[in-house]
Amino acid sequence: MDVINMHEAKTHLSRLVERAAKGEPFIIAKAGVPLVKVNALTAPDPIKQKRLGFMSGQAVIPADFDSMAQASIEALFFGEN
């Protein structure tokens, strides 16, 4: 496993991160003293959730939904006739 000094790690961070992501861990040292070990993360695949239509079939919309309470809404806007 490679030991890389702090200055070199700062200078070549992108290259080193790519190496670690490909499975090549390395150690970062300061003044020759090992400080940290850099490894690739092995995260589990995120749970794929179905968002659109998740309540399909659980709610009923009445056929007259667009005209429900139309008379009372018109009365609020235009006043009672």
Automatic annotation (TrEMBL):
Entry protein name: Antitoxin
Entry similarity comment: Belongs to the phD/YefM antitoxin family.
Species annotation: Paraperlucidibaca baekdonensis
One Pfam entry name: PhdYeFM_antitox
Main function: Antitoxin component of a type II toxin-antitoxin (TA) system.
